[in-house]
Design goal:
single chain, 565 residues, alpha/beta, five-stranded parallel sheet, 20 strands, binds 3-acetylpyridine adenine dinucleotide
Length: 565
């Protein structure tokens, strides 16, 4: 019997495997794809790249790895991030314990034997003490069931399941459904090839220019000369990555000062634009000023006034995840690119020849669904996960996900989730979040081995309190107020719950550390009465960093006021 079965070979599953092996545990990873990389294996659409700077969007656990790998661009393209994942898998000899082309369909806990049994679509049955989900937050594609889909004579693709051979749009009429990050990255490149491009927009998105560029040798050398310092600064930030942040409240400055500040931030570009003022996501009046600035930018770029107005979002800036683009709005100035507004009347159906919307048929040879994901819980729902008493996780989470610290859930002993709902996950740099979770889990498992405990599971009280805390803290931010995938609102019928933890990465880490220091407060163990003691060995030590009080957010302050559990 294995110590652990890990579901998914993205950045989470890979680091979990590496860490468990280091601590002398046996583990096997099961992966539906044919290689490592997770998100970066599946999302091969044109223009896919990360929007956190490459030198921070990478593992931080190995100084040798940091020195050995050199990123070519400020924001690495998908193929380079995939190559990095493959490099890591080879460097740390991970491939031999990863089973590819096998999708986990069932995972069941046997309470008598205290073990998990995991089954795949290839007929495998793997038995392990721990079941660790590394399934990703944005990995279950949302494919709306448009009427007439099966009648379409052309090809349909989802950005999150892109063909490995690529798609040639030359000479084609292309329809793109959706205007989120994936659409915004791919539309300029599709337009560059296609004969005709029609974009179907339900909600307009805010987007800030990436100003992507090749990384110059001097920048790379400067970072590599003291990589640990950059990593430490990143860990102290609410987002888990470092960028300049202005703490002055936006409304304390004059309109002219604000404009200058926004212009400067726009010139730097990317997600750090949100750092123009520290209260943009907490003060509606401040947010109105940045929203208007962004709309003015769109009106300044897009030449046709009617199209420009359609592209201007009217919701809170940064409430849905901010997009980062290269030439997105400029694309609408091209004569062969059109925009169809489906905000009031949804797409009616797919016909043999294209898309019918607003009573009109728009001809297309290829339809690209950039329609996003069943975020945070969708990848769990695809697997029949049964805990104590046969209850499935989907049944348990029918009214919204309940977790303790986003890494465990009552009724599912020895079951861990990497970046699960209720952890900072998508609101922080994913790889940082992953590493911190894995280190915490590894410490817990090593501790259980040391004290002879069989199972670990949160108490109902701890879970209830954590869910309430996650919900309470979310209310401090404007982000909780709009219909985004953060609250499950992009999928009809899902419960509306703010799923990620918005208290900020370092506050969250402090809470995880405190739980451990207090002898795994909020957890129950079976098999040992020595388990409620701090672990002897501590992988999580490297996460003990001081909060960067210069960038403390109202959400973090609210989170800090609440006791550990
Ligand atoms: O998905 P989305 P995404 N009819 O959900 C529309 C990360 N990411 O794949 O807003 C018509 O954001 C939907 O409309 P609405 C990042 O965290 C990162 O683009 O629901 N339209 C929306 O416009 C990101 O946030 C990068 O009204 C329909 C779009 O489809 C997350 O992944 C790159 C529809 C979906 O947008 C998801 O991004 C890419 C329907 N029936 C992704 N259903 C980086 O840069 C949905 N839509 C790192």
């Amino acid at each position: 019997m294995l110590d652990a079965v890990i579901v998914g070979a993205g950045f989470g599953g890979m680091y979990m495997l590496h860490t468990l092996r280091k601590l002398g545990f046996t583990a096997r990873v099961i992966e539906a794809g044919s290689d490592v990389g997770g998100t970066w294996y599946w999302n091969r659409y044109p223009g896919a790249r990360c929007d956190i700077e490459s030198m921070q969007y990478s593992y931080s656990f190995s100084e040798e790895l940091d020195q050995a790998w050199t990123w070519s661009e400020k924001y690495a393209p998908q193929a380079e991030i995939l190559a990095y994942a493959q490099h890591v898998a080879e460097r740390f000899d991970l491939y031999r314990d990863i089973q590819f082309d096998a999708r986990v369909e069932r995972a069941e806990f046997d309470a008598a034997a205290k073990r998990w049994s995991v089954e795949t679509d290839q007929g495998d049955r793997i038995v392990a003490r721990f079941c660790i989900m590394a399934v990703g937050c944005l990995s279950a594609a949302n494919k709306p069931a448009f009427d007439g889909l099966d009648q379409f004579k052309g090809d349909i693709y989802h950005t999150g399941e892109w063909p490995h051979a690529g798609v040639d749009f030359t000479g084609k009429r292309v329809a793109v459904i959706g205007t989120g990050s994936s659409a915004i990255q791919s539309i300029p490149l599709i337009a560059a090839q296609a004969d005709r491009l029609t974009v179907f927009q339900r909600t307009a998105s805010y987007s800030v220019p990436a100003w992507n560029a090749a990384l110059d040798a001097e920048t790379v050398e400067t970072v590599k000369a003291d990589y640990p310092a950059l990593r430490a600064k990143a860990r102290a930030r609410p987002t888990g990555f470092y960028f300049p942040f202005n703490l002055t409240p936006a409304m304390e400055e004059s309109p002219e000062q604000r404009r200058q500040q926004y212009e400067d931030a726009w010139t730097r570009g990317g997600l750090p634009f949100l750092g123009a003022y520290g209260d943009l996501l907490f003060d509606k009046t401040a947010n109105d000023t940045v929203a208007e600035f962004a709309r003015e930018k769109i009106r300044g770029i897009v030449k046709d006034p009617a199209t420009a107005e359609l592209l201007c979002p009217d919701n809170i800036f940064g409430c849905k995840r901010l997009c980062v683009d290269t030439g997105y709005f400029e694309t609408y100035n091209l004569p062969h690119v059109g925009l169809v507004d489906v905000s009031d009347r949804p797409i009616e159906r797919i016909s043999e020849n294209g898309i019918v919307a607003n009573g009109e048929e728009y001809a297309a040879d290829i339809i690209v669904c950039a329609t996003g994901f069943a975020a945070m819980t969708g990848a769990f729902d695809r697997i029949e996960i049964r805990g104590r008493g046969g209850l499935t996780l989907s049944e348990k989470w029918a009214a919204g996900p309940g977790t303790y610290l986003g890494l465990s859930t009552v009724g599912f002993p020895n079951f861990f989730m990497i970046t699960g709902p209720g952890s900072p996950s998508v609101l922080a740099s994913m790889i940082q979040s992953i590493e911190q979770h894995v280190d915490w889990m590894a410490d817990a498992m090593a501790h259980m081995r040391a004290v002879g405990a069989d199972t670990i599971e949160p108490t109902p009280e701890a879970e209830t309190n954590w869910v309430a805390h996650v919900n309470e803290v979310s209310k401090t931010s404007l982000r909780s107020t709009c219909s985004s995938w953060y609250v499950g609102a992009n999928i009809p019928g899902r419960p509306r719950v703010f799923m990620p933890y918005i208290g900020g990465f370092p506050v969250y880490v402090q809470k995880c550390n405190a739980v451990m220091d207090n002898g795994f407060e909020g957890f129950v163990f079976e098999g040992s009465d020595q388990a409620h003691t701090p672990p002897a060995y501590n992988m999580t030590e490297r996460w003990r960093v001081e909060l960067d009080m210069d960038v403390i957010t109202p959400a973090a302050l609210a989170a800090m006021r609440v006791p550990v559990v």
